[in-house]
């Protein structure tokens, strides 16, 4: 058990790439938050609905590390993407949308430097990534309240890890960093900007007097200042330089890659001394472009990780993604609808993003299959199994799979416009009917995609077997009705 927990922890140390896009920076006016959960290439995840609940005074939420907090009297319903129990390291809900129309993704792991660790060390029994969504989502009605609630917990109970969390509702998104055992800071995401976040703190200067757009623990500046640890950049204090580790090459690649992807005209250099957190994109950002970001392997650049000479470089689109999610919060959605989560099980490169609303009451049975070993009944293993074959040869096997799913996604995105209209109309008249429709639509979409994935897997397996090591004249192309 000790070894399993140790291995799990070490995997999380290098996990995840986050993304957030303000509503004026997106093509359709939605707010987007998302993340790749890069925890492992064979790591079964589920997708479930946690029903609303009522608790008696004194009932507690408990995590494996000893963290405890009293449950709220009334806990809101929410969706989540938990680990299967067999991973034996806690819930790891990953992301979700609650019945109040608030979404969050937690977390992008980040690491404080040794000097900060000495003056405000992480708390072994403090709040972990494994528990954050399960503790916070049942309690909050707005994105800003999410920051406030999480911040208060960190100050009172301490944090076991450095973490970056994204919150969003219909009106705004918030970016939050847990920077040490008890210090944290958050800023409202500018409506006209985006951020791509590797496993590194990226907040720079914040105006603590701007209470509309900034929140932070009361000693966020005083603590490092009185210990002689406050670091400046361009004449102002800089939180990431003060609290964080020196940015690693893998984090640098992803920060550069995300900014190159959306803002190529700005010619961001890989060796940029300090990356800005928020950037302006060259063009409006669409949800399918965010999907492509989460698959991005720096194709067409000198850092293209598909090239032999770049083997080992850290891509955004890594094979270690257990799931990837993108949440759209749209102004026209009533809170009962929540938001729209696009989720790809397994790694995004050769998987497919499927839409489900936050207002659902259930998910497809394939999303609930337990166990850590391959199981054809599992949605995770269905998509991950196909990806495994595709990645044996990205040109001859993978390109056909990737192209098929891309067209499938574009059709889903187009069809979503009519689905949205029906859901919004239903929600205004009959919330139960709307919930039923959202649930049935999500399950039907998953059923269709799982069936197609199984058919493509069968065709590709046969294609590989037939060639038996011989030269391939024509790459694999799925033929699925």
From TrEMBL:
Which UniProt keyword terms apply here? Dipeptidase, Hydrolase, Protease, Signal
Q: Which domain of life is it from?
A: Bacteria
The UniProt record lists the EC number as 3.4.-.-
Q: Which residues form the signal peptide?
A: 1-15
* GO molecular function terms listed in the Swiss-Prot or TrEMBL record: cysteine-type exopeptidase activity; dipeptidase activity
Q: Which PANTHER family match?
A: LD30995P, SECERNIN
- What is the official name of this protein in its record? Dipeptidase
Natural source organism: Zhenhengia yiwuensis
Taxonomy of the source species: Bacteria, Bacillati, Bacillota, Clostridia, Lachnospirales
